[in-house]
Amino acid sequence: MEFFPFLVTLLVVLRLFSLSATSFAVLHNDIIRPSDVLRDNHNDYTDTANLLVSKEGRFVLKFFSPYDLLNHRYLGIWYNHTTYIRPVWVANRCKPMEDSSGLLSIDNKGNLVLFSEENNSKREIVWSTNSSKQAAKPLVQLLDNGNLVLRDEKDANTTNYLWESFDYPTDTLLPGMKLGWDLKRGLNRRLSSWKSFYSDPCDGDFTYGIELDEKRHTYPQLTVRNGSAILYRQGLWDGMSSSDAVDDSIFNSVYNDDEVYYTYSLQNKSMMPQIVLNYDGTIEPSWDFGTFYGAIPRDKCDYYGFCGANSQCNVVSVTEEPICQCLEGFKPKNQDNWNSRSWSEGCEPYSPPSCHDEVEEEEGFEFDQYSGFRAPDTNYSWVTKTKDESECRSKCLSNCSCMAYSYPFSESIYSNEDCIHWFGDLFDIRQLSSSRFEPHTYIRISNSKIAPKIHNETRADGSRGKIALL
User: Phi and psi at residue 128, in whole multiples of 5°?
Assistant: First the structure.
């Protein structure tokens, strides 16, 4: 992935953008009450009365103009006392104000409302929390985790917030934010990119979140989409950590009947971490300003379905092209194209699975275990409950369309009975450099009584080899 040009662009615009974005807020005024009005001071950050600053001064809510677009005014949350060139959250991201007439206050219904005042008389609503819940004494507070909350003055219980910005993220995931689903409320918290890197915060082409289909009982997985098409995935999501997440030691995942999400935290409070979905679809983790962990996708194998169906992708080193291999018991759909390193058509089985519900060895098929690989795309999966792995395996054998299974919680610290079955072609399998939380996947193949198990390999130098497993 060519990430260095992106970093160069970031550094070039840093100085220019910081002229209109740098905060010098010192007053810790973290609350707005119905009698208060926050006014656009047109980047006069010495006017601390019109800045909302979290209690410990970590975050600030302020009006801003991106880069050189002075006639586009937005309201956003920023890390305070830094030269971060973009906010971590934007209220009116697709509806900028044309001048500095913005006003922020609590209306008579208890909602936080952003107005644009025309000629000091007519007010136009630009953005609102639009909460159906009302409080006897509403107030708005900017917390030190960057969460802007609407709550009752006498109730600081986090479960009773009337509205919170963490439920409506823009392009940035902060520590403590939940990326995923509140199934009871039907709320999908996901990131959406900016339209451009530094000038247009409106929703861009890319989204990042947890996908699952409750009606089809698919298993959750992390994906980045370009419109409706999957750009890349982050592997099988097993309630602990994505298999190739940035740093599994700080991530926590929840998967139950009410919620499906992941979140992260850092012990070092002096750091200013964020995970950003960039305008070009890359995910950029940063634990402190100017310190980047490394963008995702990292290589061509990260891109969805690079090797086609029923195949696996492997990158030997960052300087080499990826290697595509058919899964054991599968062959290229088009041998000539495969030989020329055109892999998108993928592979097909030597012999389709039998549909007889008998012992697999007697019927000529078996399961091949894959470890250290990203599991197939779970959009083609079905999750069911079984008492153990043996029952999970038997249920797959009894369905001639079942091509693979996994019983992930047999290998995790959680007690669960989830059995995952995949149907039809298997997509987007890649070898992983680290697979601490990636469970074994068992892929259904014909055994040697019906067809030889052939290992199809395209080597780094372009030559091919076949290894018969006897």
Answer: -150, 150
Domain membership flag for residue 219: no
Is there a single domain that holds both residue 149 and residue 180? no
Domain count, the chain: 3
- Across residues 97-108, what is the average pLDDT? 93
Instruction: Note the pLDDT tens digit of each residue in 130-161.
Output: 999 989 999 999 999 999 999 999 998 999 99
Structure pTM?
0.83
pLDDT band at 1 (very low <50, low <70, confident <90, very high): very low
Q: Which residue reads 């929703």 in tokens? A: 203
Does residue 139 sit in the same domain as residue 239? Answer: no
pLDDT for 375-430, tens place per residue? 899 999 998 888 889 999 999 988 888 999 998 754 443 446 789 999 999 999 99
What range does the domain containing 358 cover? 301-469
Co-location of 311 and 386 in the same domain: yes
Same domain, 235 and 151: no
**Which one is predicted more confidently, 285 or 469?**
285
Contact 431, 372 (CB under 8 A): yes
What average pLDDT score do residues 114-123 get? 78
Residues 90, 57 share a domain: yes
Copy the structure tokens of residue 342: 């055109």
Where are the strands (E) in 227-360, listed by range? 229-236, 251-255, 259-264, 274-277, 283-288, 291-292, 311-314, 323-326, 330-332, 347-349
Residue 221 lies in a domain: no
Q: Is residue 4 assigned to a domain?
A: yes
**Contact residues for 77 (Cβ-Cβ < 8 A; gap 6+):** 59, 60, 61, 87, 88, 89, 142, 146, 148, 165
Sign of the Cα torsion 62, 65, 66, 68 reads negative
Q: Please say whether the beta carbons of 29 and 12 come within 8 A.
A: no
Contact (Cβ atoms closer than 8 angstroms) between residue 239 and residue 254: yes
Strand partners, 112: 106
Q: Cα separations (Å) of 339 from 313, 316, 342, 426, 458?
A: 15, 19, 7, 21, 8
162 and 177, same domain (yes or no): no
Q: List all residues 6 or more positions away from 387 whose beta carbon is below 8 Å from its beta carbon.
A: 417
Give yes or no: residues 68 and 132 share one domain: yes
Q: Name residue, tokens 């909460």.
A: 131
Would you tell me how many other CB atoms lie within 10 Å of the CB of residue 432?
A: 16
